[in-house]
Amino acid sequence: xxxxxxxxxxxxxDEVKRRIESxxxxxxxxxxxxxxxxxEFNCARATVNRALRELADQGFVERKRKSGTRxxxxxxxxxxxxxxxxxxxxxxxxxxxxxxxxxRNIVYSPGWLASQLDVEPNxxxxxxxxxxxxxxxxxxxxxxxxxxxxVPEVEHADLNVRGPNEWLLHAAPFTEAEISFSxxxxxxxxxxxMGTTTGTSMIQLExxxxxxxQPITFARMTHHPSYCIRSRY
Length: 233
Fold this sequence. Notes:
Blueprint: H1 9-21, H2 34-41, H3 45-57, E1 61-64, E2 68-71, H4 86-92, E3 97-108, H5 111-117, E4 124-134, E5 137-147, H6 164-171, E6 176-185, H7 188-194, E7 201-211, E8 214-223
Antiparallel strand pairs: 1-2, 3-4, 4-5, 5-8, 6-7, 7-8
């Protein structure tokens, strides 16, 4: 087997950036696919993926699943938002963290989840509901649906001590994610979990993740009313 010189993601990133700035790839143009760029640079597709992710973070390109990567038409300054594990967020505020598994079931994906994850109808899904506490006060309710076909080992994983988010980050780290935030009013079920009253305003985060194009999980995290999100330019 022929040996190849290893190309770093920085080399790929800087060359793609140079082509954008020199208008070889003008604003709004579609870049070659990751596979095509990997062949051109004689490197792994993962190397190209990381280079393009950095350029997306810097505002040079826009990446969309199934639509490819395009040069940004109107570059904007990007704010970096760090999404911490519940354990990290609790310990960062100098509180004692506690985790509790509430429910764990194997289900067949309902229509809304099949659409969200882009899986076959009635795909086998591990559904998990768990609570995260700060000093024994409700901090976050986590509801998660994991695609067993992509991560088959999760079906028998021990999630009694470590939460599904932590387990997935070690066993099946994602390569792509889509995140949305919403302001919601607590219904009776949420109010009971979070130790508050019906109608209380809360922040809810929804996140879908993929690994090399294969859907991993859809998660819905609802936070206590005191939760605050910060970002930095």
